[in-house]
Amino acid sequence: ERHIDFAEVARWGTEAAVPNLLMGAVDILAGQLRVFSSRLDTITPAHILASCAVPNIFPAVMLENSAFWDGLFSDNPPIAETIRTRFVGTENIPDEIWVIKINPTRAAKVPLAPEEIGDRRNQLVGNMSLFQQLHAIDMLDELHDMGAFRPEFISRLELDHMVRLPRGFDEDPPRHWHIPFIEMSKELQGTLDYESKLDRNPRNITMLMEDGERQARAFLAARAALS
Q1: Contact yes or no for 111/117 (Cβ under 8 A)
Q2: Which three-class secondary structure state does DSSP give residue 76?
Q3: Which entry of 98, 116, 119, 205 is 20 to 30 Å from 219 by CA?
Q4: Rounded distance, CA 190 to CA 175, Å?
């Protein structure tokens, strides 16, 4: 609060041509990325703390009835949102994207000491989300260069987006395409911990496989009901 004028940042959400502040965090309980935007959110110190709460160093930040960690795990930084009008508005779509990178891409040697391994792992996790978003934007640029965004193509997209097929899963937003997930049951999740990932006991393996079969049958049944 000594260094940031939050009243000024709050004004950014009410005016079109001012800068946009985007910060990535991960919702620990929901297991999903959350992007805080000065255009959509009233930014407070808690939002900034949530975006930089590194696990094992800082406690999770309670915000909006959930708990948040550093966005390193899922959005580092939230680059894809800089080209989405929902987050920055039509007047702030960038002509260029510059990345100020704090984690190295390459390593000079294979880490051996535990602290070196932990540090390199942290770098790789952070870079992974960054590169994935950059690759997605790169693909959009290639499509643009190939003429994929011609008026007749755009009009077809707009028509397609008006079509809403059955979703099948309540957590998915309305859209004409669907990428579902098959996950273990919540009951099983509640009985597992980190050590269970290393447990090769046949009884444990059998329990995992049987739950997977039940979840697969439920998925196929739900899929058949949509057709």
Answers
A1: yes
A2: coil
A3: 205
A4: 31
